[in-house]
Please model this.
Amino acid sequence: MHREIRPDSIAPPAANYAHAILTEGAARWLHTSGVVPIAADGTVPDGIADQARTVWSNIGAMLVSAGMGPPDVVSVTTYVVVGEELPPVMAERDAFLGGRRVASTLVTVPALARPEWRMEIAVVAAAS
Model:
């Protein structure tokens, strides 16, 4: 249902993501808001890797509630506060997606809505 689009006429992606994903035959779509690193108990982890893990856990719970899973994710938009390390953020994305490449945008920002939030992620998922 999802197929990576890789035109030979453009350069390959700069990291482990797809330039585009074609989704055909999808009957259900899930669009999340920016998912922030607040754990179920209301706490916010300190480190960026722990925040990324918490965000992906929250996204996983939303997918399950929608009758979906990681293979249904087609697009990811990640916002990270300037100065934070990017490799742990990308590693958590790759782990959650099981190495699958999806359309992915990473934006560095000066701040998020709360100072303790160092990142947030929005996803689009599609299922038949």
